[in-house]
Design brief:
With 166 residues, the chain is α/β, with parallel strands linked by helices. The protein has seven helices and five strands; from the N terminus they run βαβααβαβαβαα. The chain has one domain: HUPs (Rossmann fold, 3-Layer(aba) Sandwich).
Length: 166
């Protein structure tokens, strides 16, 4: 029996409580989850690719359950998502949806990815109610303006954001 491998791609700049929730829920539907941290320089990230990978790894290390932690890998990628998925042996791409506004973009992306490789399915997980309004962009803006980001990210991530802006 082969393992079902999923890829959860994103910029994770920074990783939020909403991302962590999707990660935990994704581990219920795949045997191994690869968190693909997109380098995506075009978005002008606050944290470097290496910093984002380190931050995501640190967050995974604090997830309850060593059995869950062992099934998660974090890797940076800068190629086409479908190529990365194939390199990881993935049959599933996991995407989180916060609101209807996310759906149109994600729907188009899933269609394009399906045309590029029909053997890899996209699975959408709806954000839990308490995380639907959280976005990395808002977290960065709040942090830049000296606001409290702790309701949206872990204390570890909040401290990293604080250091970036002080």
């Amino acid at each position: 029996m082969s393992l079902r491998v999923g890829v959860y791609p994103g910029t994770f700049d920074p990783i939020t409580n909403g991302h962590t929730d999707i990660i935990l829920r994704a581990t219920k539907i795949v045997d191994r989850l690869v968190i693909g941290v997109a380098k995506n320089i075009g978005k002008g990230p606050l944290f470097t690719s290496d910093e984002r990978v380190a931050i995501v790894k640190e967050e995974i290390a604090h997830i309850d359950g060593k059995d869950v932690q062992k099934r998660i890998e974090v890797k940076a990628f800068d190629n086409l998502l479908m190529h990365f998925a194939v390199e990881q042996g993935a049959s599933v791409i996991v995407r989180g949806l916060r609101a209807v506004s996310d759906f149109e973009y994600e729907f188009q992306m899933a269609g394009m990815n399906g045309r590029l490789n029909a053997t890899v399915e996209t699975v959408f997980l709806m954000s839990a109610d308490r995380y639907q309004f959280i976005s990395s962009r808002f977290v960065k803006e709040i942090g830049q303006l000296g606001g409290d980001v702790t309701p949206f990210v872990s204390a570890r991530v909040a401290e990293r954001i604080r250091k970036k802006f002080t």
